[in-house]
Amino acid sequence: MDHAAVLALFERDLREGARPDGPGARIERVGAVVRRTAPAHGWNGVVGSALEASTADAVIAEQTAYFSGLGREFEWKLYGHDLPADLGRRLVAAGFVPGPEETLMVGDVAELTLDTEPPEGVRVVAVTDRAGVDLLADVHEKAFGADASRLRRQLLERLTHDPGTVVAVVALAGDEPVSAARMELVPGTRFAGLWGGGTVRDWRGRGIYRALVAHRGRIAVDRGYRYLQVDASGRSRPILERLGFAALTTTTLYVYRPVR
Asked: Is 207 exposed, middle or buried (0-12, 13-18, 19+ CB in 10 A)?
């Protein structure tokens, strides 16, 4: 895989050419910024930017004013190759709080190991309704220790109104949900994004996460997608590398919460 070429394609298709993906979502291109606005329970933020050092602070101020005017918390998704090179420092100075740095990893499906199955006694089931969403959200809360109320609403809306753009699965050991993940399919591009893969603590280290990556990868192949992309944590990166994914750059979410 030509890493530079694939990163350029990622930029063109998923950042510069971002598309609205969910009820009420809207993509706006304002000067050098591509931003996504959505209802308060959705994801609001800056998807991409091409800033000059001389005007970056002013552009940041414009975006904070815009989202603050909507009363919305929002995120600025910063990639390691974004300019200016000190954009992260500028965001912090403007009141943003950075999350953990992750690694953008991409795999060409023709080069990935996608024949992995879950361990004995564990089966993978599709999430298609409210009951399935509740199972997935419960796993998310246990695996990540984070509230999943927004995820519940967002995923149920996608499955109801635009089911062809999202795939969600839960791994069950008997009747116990032990792992879950989703995949977002971007029409008109060659990329499918893997998101939210998490396993409850007592079931980690048994290959379930790896199996869910492979399961979603096979679905992406069947639907004609060429690349899988993941924002990988330090825990998942080694697993993805063994499956054939390559690290292209880093990514960090900077969160801005308006003063109320």
From this structure: middle
For residue 4 the two structure tokens come to 């530079």
Residues 16, 35, single domain; the answer is: yes
- Note the helical H segments in the chain: 3-10, 56-70, 87-93, 130-144, 149-161, 208-222, 237-243
Percent of the chain exceeding pLDDT 90 equals: 96
Q: What is the span of the domain harbouring residue 12?
A: 3-103+252-256
Residues 130 and 193 in one domain: yes
Q: Which stretches does DSSP call E strand in 25-84?
A: 26-30, 33-37, 45-49, 74-79
pLDDT band at 23 (very low <50, low <70, confident <90, very high): confident
| 56, 84 contact by CB (below 8 A) | yes
Q: Which two tokens stand for residue 215?
A: 């399961």
220 located within any domain: yes
Q: In terms of domains, do 232 and 122 share one?
A: yes
Contact 173, 203 (CB under 8 A): yes
The count of domains in the chain is 2
